[in-house]
Amino acid sequence: MVPIAYYLILAAILFSIGVAAFLIKRNVITIFMSIELMLNAVNLTFVAFAHMWHQVSGQIFVFFVMVVAAAEAAVGLAIIIALFRTRQTLSVDQINLLKD
Amino acid sequence: MSPNLIAILPEIVLTLTAVLVMLADASLAPGKPRRLLGWVAILGAFAAGSFSLWQLRLVDASGPITAYSGTVQVDAFSVFFHLLIAAIVMVTLLGSLDYFAPPAAMAEHSETARLAYTHVGEYFALVLFGATGMMFMTCSVELLMVFIGLEISSISTYILAGFRKGQGVSAEAALKYFLLGSFATSFFLYGIALAFGATGSTSIAAIAAGMSTTHTPVLALLSVAMILIGIGFKVSAAPFHVWTPDVYQGAPAPVVGLMSTAPKAAAFAVLLRVLFNAVPTLRATWLPLILALSVASMFIGNLGALMQRDVKRLLAYSSIAHAGYLLAAFTSTHPEAVASACFYTAAYAAMNVGAFLVITELSGVDETMRTIDDFTGAAKSRPYLSGLLAFFLCSLIGIPFTAGFFGKFYVFSAAVHGGFTWLAVLGLLNSGIACFYYLRLMTALYSRPLHGEVRGAMARVTPSAALGLAFAGLATLALGIFPGPVLSLVQRAAPKTIPIISSAPSSSATASLTNGQ
């Protein structure tokens, strides 16, 4: 059986990749995908811990995270489309109207 | 009625009103006036507030109400925040009833106004949905419910931030708010997952019980740090504040008034519940983090605001600084910390919503007045609005007889009682720095106009907007002169979690982590 720590370390690595990609990537869609990666790392952590504690509540939490992530994706993509319509760009370097 | 339904009655009322507004909006022909929908929404918020007061009577009579297997707990704490959120929503809606242009004048209004107007029904509904989420955040004692409430409120405000459709800045503000908000949510969620790992539960009472017996203190510490990062983003505490100036600058002014106060109040409520109810045993760990956040927010907020020319950006930095003052309250011990923090959220809400409503009235949907230069000389053409803005700025400074004074007084005396006199001194020093930029804006209002005349929206203040402004002004004044009633409510509000009979996880599960089986 795979030890629980392996799952947790994998999840931590995935989460870190998500954070790094969020900070490094310049394309809005890719940045959005890195957030999804972070959320899925959290899901993996939840499932691993749910297995460890023999508690189903952790798995239920994952369902809610997935539902909310779907809702967030709907709104997020709509915002990205609205932005693309006004600016014709998806690069965060060119999304720079707001500054002093 | 079953206790379950009584416990979430305000949220039910808000949700039903929001659905009603959305359906009515869809069935109205495009171009028909939708002002009535706004009044329906205001009525819904009022009803939700009234039901919260009724809940308070029940709580007084028979103690806190728990519902849905201990996930929701209605006590004086949750009622206080329910009332605050309902009041913020009512004032914001009153102020923005006519923010989007009426159809008769549509032709002469800008493209932005016309586009936004066609969706104004959705605007009212989204404000209510957001408020529902915020209310759930304050009455949940289960982190799953807190998370769902947080997301309901966040997703609604993401959309509201981009409501000036067709304007690049608004879409950009929505995008930045969305990306950084979701980023923060992931940290918050990771924190919950680690707390679940350390204690085997996501209920605040069970986490509190589990934290003292956990075999994996590292997980517990990491979870507190992650939750602090997540909430730190939501309350725009430095160093998690980077999104705030951009979003406040680009989002519509009434929406900024709402989202700089209501979701923040709800996030502070979550932070209070988590820190003082779930992990009081780890106080030695989170106290230095809170101190760092508080000091960093005060200095970055105030020094950043000194360099701003855009007024909404300036108020964004001021909002970061105010988050820092508020965090200073957390250094005190339980009842006083909660009472002073709650009072500050109310005081800040009154003056900040007011300030942004004045900006709404002055600069209109197209935001013709942006920088301090644009506001220069506004007192000549708009004497009442300018006077009101000056009053709200006085309150933000913390001048006596305004809400800001008592807010700061209680927060800093809480810090002193917690044994952090130096923090209170730093806070007062920062209030001094803050005087510079607030007074700069104030003197600009009463100076001679730079361009000969002020370019602002010259529309008359409608009676409903005047009512909203009067409400915000009176609240700011009342909290500064008679803080007693609110103070007595917040002093009772110190949340106590009722221990629920949790299915205590077996210790063998913890052993499996250490054994790695």
From TrEMBL, chain A:
Q: Which leading EC class covers this enzyme?
A: translocase
Under the subunit heading, UniProt states: NDH-1 is composed of 14 different subunits. Subunits NuoA, H, J, K, L, M, N constitute the membrane sector of the complex.
Q: What protein family is recorded? A: Belongs to the complex I subunit 4L family.
- State the annotated membrane topology for this chain: Multi-pass membrane protein
InterPro entries according to UniProt: NADH_UbQ_OxRdtase_chain4L/K (IPR001133), NUOK/Mnh_C1-like (IPR039428)
Question: What species is this protein from?
Answer: Bryocella elongata
Q: Name one GO molecular function term.
A: NADH dehydrogenase (quinone) (non-electrogenic) activity
Catalytic function, reaction form: a quinone + NADH + 5 H(+)(in) = a quinol + NAD(+) + 4 H(+)(out)
Membrane-spanning parts:
6-24, 31-54, 60-84
Q: Under what name is this protein listed?
A: NADH-quinone oxidoreductase subunit K
From TrEMBL, chain B:
Question: Which GO molecular function annotations are given, in alphabetical order?
Answer: NADH dehydrogenase (quinone) (non-electrogenic) activity; NADH dehydrogenase (ubiquinone) activity; quinone binding
Which keywords has UniProt assigned to this entry?
Answer: Cell inner membrane, Cell membrane, Membrane, NAD, Quinone, Translocase, Transmembrane, Transmembrane helix, Transport, Ubiquinone
Q: One GO term of the cellular component aspect?
A: plasma membrane
Q: Keyword Cell cycle on this protein? A: no
Location(s) in or outside the cell: Cell membrane; Endomembrane system; Membrane
> What family does the entry list?
Belongs to the complex I subunit 2 family.
Report the Pfam families cross-referenced here. Proton_antipo_M
| Subunit comment | NDH-1 is composed of 14 different subunits. Subunits NuoA, H, J, K, L, M, N constitute the membrane sector of the complex.
Q: Which organism is it from?
A: Bryocella elongata
GO BP annotations, alphabetical order: ATP synthesis coupled electron transport
Stated EC number for the protein is: 7.1.1.-
What the protein does comes down to:
NDH-1 shuttles electrons from NADH, via FMN and iron-sulfur (Fe-S) centers, to quinones in the respiratory chain. The immediate electron acceptor for the enzyme in this species is believed to be ubiquinone. Couples the redox reaction to proton translocation (for every two electrons transferred, four hydrogen ions are translocated across the cytoplasmic membrane), and thus conserves the redox energy in a proton gradient.
Q: What is this protein called?
A: NADH-quinone oxidoreductase subunit N
Q: By its UniProt entry, which InterPro entries does this protein fall under?
A: NADH-Q_OxRdtase_suN/2, ND/Mrp_TM
Coiled-coil annotation reads none
